Amino acid sequence: QLEEALSFCKTTLENNLKENVNLVRVSAPLFVTRASGFNDNLNGVERPATFEPRDFPGTHLEVPFSLAKWKRWALHYYGVEAGKGIVTDFRGLRCDDDVDFTHSLYVDQFDWEKHIAAEDRNIDYLKATVKAIYKALYDTEQAVCKKFGIDAYLPEELTFATSDDMIKEHPTATPKERENILCEKHKAVFFIGIGGMKPDGQLRHDGRAPDYDDWITERPDGGHGLNGDLLLWNPVLKQSFEISSMGIRVNPEVLLKQLDLCGVNERKEFVWHKMLLDGTLPQTIGGGIGQSRTCQYLLRACHIGEVQHGWYNPKEVEILKKDGIQLLGLGEFDADPSAKSS
Question: Comparing C-alpha atoms, which of 122, 284, 117 is closest to residue 219?
Answer without folding.
Answer: 122
